[in-house]
Structure formats: C-alpha cells, structure tokens
Amino acid sequence: MRGVLTISTVNVNGMRAAAKKGFVEWLAHSEADVVACQEVRAEASQLPEEVVAPLGWHAHHAASTTKGRNGVSVYSRAEPSQVRIGFGAAEFEGSGRYLEVQLPGLIVASVYVPSGDVGTPRQEEKARFMAAFLPYLVELRAKAEAAGVEAVVLGDWNIAHREVDLKAWKTNHKNSGFLPEERAWLSRVYDEAGYVDVQRALDPDGPGPYTWWSYRGKAYDNDAGWRIDLQVATPGLAARAVSARVERAATYGERWSDHAPLTIGYEWP
C-alpha cells in the first residue's frame, strides 16, 4: 500500500450471476488494492472459490440473515487487522448492509443503503437506516482521527445528491433516491459529519459520471443513469485523490451488473 492506493466499489446485483457474467475476470485483472462489493445476495457457502477466496486477496463477507438479500464484501491485498460486521444498530446487525476492515493506516467500509420505495415499509426502513447510520459515521471519523488513520466508506448509497447526479432529475423529485429529505441527509454526511464525496470533489460540475442504469429500455445506451455509488472519505484521504473513473462496459451485452465499478486512485501514504 505505497505509491498509489487504488480502491474500487461496485454493486454486483447478485454475486452468483455476476461471477458467471464477468466479475471473476474483472477482479483477476483489477489493479485495485481494495474492492468493496454490495448486493452480494448469497452466503459464502453458495459462492465459487474464486469469489469466496480469490488468489491474491484477503476476502471478508457479511451475508444477510434473510436469504437472497443484501450482502456486502471487502477484498484487500493487505490482510486486515480487524473486521467488523454491522455498525451497532440492532435492527441492521444481521442485514448484510455494513462491513468494516482495518488496514494499515486506513479503515475501509462497504455499505449498502436500503433502496426504498415511497409509500411502503421499504422507505420507512431506509429512513431508520439513515437515522442510525449518520451518528455512526460521526463516531467512525472520530475513531479514525484518534487513531491517526484515514477512513473511507464505499458503496451503493442509493441517493443521488444533486441534479447533476442523475439524468432524469426533473421527473424524480418524488421518487426514492432523489427525495428532498434523502438529499438533505447526504448533505449532513458531508457538512456535519465532515466527509467528502471524493469523485465529486475531483469533478465538481458533472453531469455524472453515472454508476447505475436501469435494465429497462435504452437507459444504458443513452447513458440515462444515476450516480449513487460513492467513495465517501475523511478529508485527509480525499485530499490525496488523484484520479477517478467509472469502469463502464463498452456495450450493454458486456455488463455483469446494472452498476459499474467506481475506481479512485489515492497518493499513499
């Protein structure tokens, strides 16, 4: 972990399917030092060896107690000294939505924020998750500062923060993922908790680059997407970012998820 530290995050939209469609090959050829995955939707026993324990990686997985739901993972070249599942909220401890590892000089977390659905219990769950997660983010930053290390929370945050973060912003103000209260909560992550949206700091104006596209219609071909996969870092780490890219497949048929990896390079140490 010297020179340039490369970190990727991607929602795999079901690891068993992604592994068959190209994730295994992508990981094998990745130059990343750390990879975070979300929406794994499988227990380790259900995944092939090249996903559970790929050569050259230390892999940690947090599955949901509800089979076929959620699930997050972290792959790292360096071996973590500590691994934590969940962030202390009883409702979400077994939900497969949060996994944190301690690497040399760096805390890395993989998070899968609920997607929500307006007017349903899913949106209420998302609101409860956000209410519980913000105080933990404050705690995490304080813990990192006290230890003299940086922290980065990688994942599918399921919120487009600004109009430049989704193509069809005019028609989504009343839809989950672009609700005013969700956007205001994400502003609090930055303004109150003191984290930085690293990709947006490197490219303040947009639009995009988007990281998720619906499978419906021509969304991918028309680049009608959402920027909801983020690397949210402590200011010290964010200041070291030197490059960011979305690893968008060349064609619709080459996709192995409805998301694309967000990869950022950081000067390190």
TrEMBL record:
Keyword check for Magnesium: yes
Protein name: Exodeoxyribonuclease III
Its EC number(s): 3.1.11.2
Sequence positions that bind Mg(2+): N11, E39, D156, N158, D258, H259
Gene Ontology molecular function: any one: metal ion binding
Alphabetical UniProt keywords: Hydrolase, Magnesium, Manganese, Metal-binding
Organism name: Amycolatopsis pithecellobii
Top-level EC class as recorded in UniProt: hydrolase
BP term (GO), one: DNA repair
Cofactor: how and how many bound: Probably binds two magnesium or manganese ions per subunit.
Alphabetized InterPro entries for the sequence: AP_endonuc_1, Endo/exonu/phosph_ase_sf, Endo/exonuclease/phosphatase, ExoIII-like
